[in-house]
Amino acid sequence: MRRSRSALASVLCMTAAVGLATALGPAPAAAASSAPAAAAPSCPYPYVCFIKNDKIIGKFKDVTSGWQPLPSKPKDITVVNSRRDDVAYIRNTHGGIVCIAPKSSYSTGWTLNAVRISSNSSCG
């Protein structure tokens, strides 16, 4: 069976289009919703908050002379000190201690076991 030149050109054009579409992959799907992504939670004043996976898992506000044990042993978290004039100390299970200045935060991979809020206004 003999094909005309226009039929052959049409087949070649379709083959090229299918090949290009296959090489580029499927078109991206349209977004179902234009709602903004959830923001990380903010730590309310006057707390020291423990945040993991964008959720507050604990918060403390009492100034103490000793360590306050944490009810769980969180790891890979961010500690936020929302206090304006007080520092917060966090302690890990190996005894390491970090001071967090007022209105600042600290991210750690340590396993933490205690917190202490001090009325000192700086870590120095």
Summary tags:
globular, disordered N terminus, alpha+beta, 124 residues
Q: Mind explaining what this structure looks like?
A:
- It is built from 1 helix and 7 strands, in the order H-E-E-E-E-E-E-E.
- The chain has one helix at 5-24; strands spanning 48-52, 55-60, 68-69, 75-81, 87-92, 97-100, 104-118.
- The longest helix is centred in the N-terminal third of the chain and has 20 residues, at 5-24.
- The radius of gyration is 29 Å and the shape is globular.
SSE topology sketch:
Elements: H1 5-24, E1 48-52, E2 55-60, E3 68-69, E4 75-81, E5 87-92, E6 97-100, E7 104-118
Antiparallel strand pairs: 1-2, 1-4, 3-7, 4-7, 5-6, 5-7
**Element-by-element helix/strand order:** HEEEEEEE
Strand content: 35-45%
Q: pLDDT below 50 for ≥5 consecutive residues: which ranges?
A: 1-39
Q: How many strand segments? A: 7
Radius of gyration: 29 Å
- Label the structural class: alpha+beta
How far apart, in Å, are the first and last alpha carbons?
Answer: 92 Å
Mean pLDDT: 77
What is the overall shape? Answer: globular
Helix percentage range: 10-25%
Count of individual helical segments: 1
**Main sheet record:** 7 strands, antiparallel
Entry summary:
This protein is α+β, with helices and mostly antiparallel strands and 124 residues long. It has one helix at residues 5-24, and strands spanning 48-52, 55-60, 68-69, 75-81, 87-92, 97-100, 104-118.
